[in-house]
Amino acid sequence: MILGRAGRTLPNENRSTRTSLWAVHALRRDFFLRMIAFSALAIVNTKMSLAQDLTSESELVVQTIADNLRHPTGIAIHPQTGIIFVAEQGAQQIVRVVDGNADTAVFGFRKEVAAEEPREEQILHLAFIDQSTLAVIVKSLPKNEYDILVLKNVSTDAGKKLSAAISSRYRIGRTVSKDLLSDLTNFAQGGFSIFLTGKSAENAHWLAKGSIAETGISKPVPVAPISEANSNLTPTTIACSPMGFLTVGFVGADAIHSECSLAFFDDDGGKLGEARLDLADVWGLAYHPTNGRLFALGRQKGGDNNPGLFQIVTASDGLSGISHRVLALPRPTAFVFDAKGELFVSLHGEDTSVNEAPMSGFVIKISGLDASHPTWLAR
């Protein structure tokens, strides 16, 4: 099975079709390499300044669309209305943002701080799989168990709440072939499937795949190994490109001094290629929906290693990726593009030693990432 240009799954109907897939695979890999190389040509010799309040004097426009949030950790966009949904970990809820106001959309995530062994569900990632169904990855402490919650009938109307307790749950582990027990990374949606990575009982990382249907999501099952057992590299993020291939970001054991890398796969786990990456850490990847540029949330090596938003382009050797910082951002946690190419980023906010998280997190919208000649590539 392969993904078509619109992300739909194309069936292998006959033997000639299956044979032609090898040619399609080769063409897609060639086009993928050309697309990344082309992005490196958009360079101009101008400067970009960024004020502390994230206001840019270049082609970028940065707006705060929600504030006073308690440690936002994930973000999703409703596919029909464009309304933003944010995982507010510090308040154990998911909120929707309308006209700058955030109200509770999903509540009821588990938290038992008074128990002998405190238990808590960390809301890690979320994404809409249709107009009313939200998929959420949660990590249960202290056992570090991962679940995918399928929340149906999520409303965009203010004041309407849904309990996470009534969601369908899929425990990530004890699948048919391997146990995906730990190190679950962000998941990506492509066509009628979701993709994620996890570590097996043998300490090897696998790409897992689940099918999207009217009833929700089938339990993801491993389809291919993406790193060897006890590898120094750990997958930290995954994204689906507009062309249908998957991009996985890897970080070494020492995130401050280690090498990062990217690996590219088709939707059945077949490896298309890999590239070194000049970042010390990467925890988010996303493709611009109209121009195909690859953006990352990460941290640079040495010097100013503050986190930020980066565009990744291909070096002249074709074997490594060069990161160009677009914006320095205070503790970004997640990001997502809308259909028009505007980027929404959640920012964690301050930590505290008390039980209640401070209301210092916020969400920004960045416009202008579709510029023909991005100024940040010249820095």
SS class: mainly beta
Order of helices and strands: EEHEEEEEEEEEEEEEEEEEEEEEEEEEEE
Low-confidence stretches: 1-27, 31-57, 173-177
Number of strand elements: 29
Any overview of this molecule?
There is one protein chain. With 379 residues, the chain is mainly β. It has a single domain, classed as Neuraminidase. 7% of the residues lie in helices and 46% in strands. The protein contains one helix and 29 strands. It has one helix spanning 15-39, and strands at residues 2-3, 9-10, 61-69, 72-77, 84-88, 93-98, 101-107, 111-112, 119-128, 134-141, 145-151, 162-163, 168-171, 188-190, 193-199, 205-213, 216-217, 221-225, 234-240, 246-251, 260-265, 271-277, 279-287, 294-300, 307-314, 320-328, 332-337, 343-347, 361-367. The strands form six sheets. It has an eight-stranded mixed sheet with strand order 19-20-21-22-26-25-24-23, covered by helices on one side. A five-stranded mixed sheet has the order 4-5-6-7-12, with no helix packed on it. A hairpin with a 2-residue loop joins β6 (93-98) and β7 (101-107). It is globular, with a radius of gyration of 20 Å. The termini are far apart.
